[in-house]
Amino acid sequence: MNPETDAIVLLHGFPFDRSMWREQIEFLSSSGWRCVAPDLRGLGENVAQASAGESAAEHDPRLKSGPPATMHDMARDVAGLMDELRIKRAIICGLSMGCYVAFEFVHLFPERVRALVLCGPKAEGPDETEKQSREAQAGRVLTEGMQFAVASISQNLLAAATVKAKPDVVARVTEMVLQTDPKGAAAAQRGMAARRDYSSTLTRIKVPTLIIAGREDGVRKPADADFIQQRIKGSELIVIDDAGHLMNMEQPEAFNRALIGFLKGLDSLIH
Ligand code: MLT
User: Fold this and answer.
1) Which of 14, 20, 100 has most ligand 1 atoms within 8 Å of CB, for mutation?
2) Is 80 exceeded by the pLDDT of residue 235?
3) Closest C-alpha to ligand 1, atom 4
4) Atom of ligand 1 at shortest range from CA of 189
5) C-alpha 13 – ligand 1 centre gap (Å)
6) Range with the lowest mean pLDDT among 55-69, 126-140, 149-163?
7) Pairing mode, if any, of strands 113-119 and 209-214?
8) Residue 133: half-sphere exposure toward Cβ, Cα within 13 Å
């Protein structure tokens, strides 16, 4: 293994943190892979970066309640971290918001991407309704805190089988959401509202790509994964049963199997 290129960078979803990759880090590390799972800007323990734009906010009343943490910012943060860790090229694996960051990253730094793993991805940009809804959520999180977001865990994020049979996963997800800094969450919502439409650049992605979807994902439609799979040449789509939006936490064995199968196949795909 070459530590400068045999690394996998795991980008979490929203409003979560790096701890969502626990089972993947354990599994991949024991198979010899170098894993890097940062807390993205403003989230998890990375709250310092959320205030990076606050001096701008002092002078701009529209940003008073928090500037956006854009997908572009987050992708640059990831590149900076890779520089620090002396990782030239990595497999970039994102889940949901992490996929927006992965799309931004492959666009900005194509030579630094050895392969992509896109979990619960969506490529289209936000329409007006989505933008308004994200702004409303950002406002709500700033005034009410994260508690209101907990209701959507069993409704949208997790498969029925997870809610019924895996109380530990439900508890972990709930804790992650509640521990999220409201300012960081609002900044990320605004960043997602400002994201580009990635659909027209999908055909430019030339690296091996695995797409993973949860069959019961209440946040992403299966059509979103199909759309991407049809446009990234040679990409593969794996759908995991009894899994929702957080498929890697809900069905870690099936997820890890899919991931390692793809990683093992990379050597034969890459020259
Ligand atoms: C996520 O899990 O990262 C979110 O569902 C992303 C989004 O709100 O689009």
Assistant:
1) 14
2) yes
3) 14
4) 8
5) 6
6) 55-69
7) parallel
8) 5
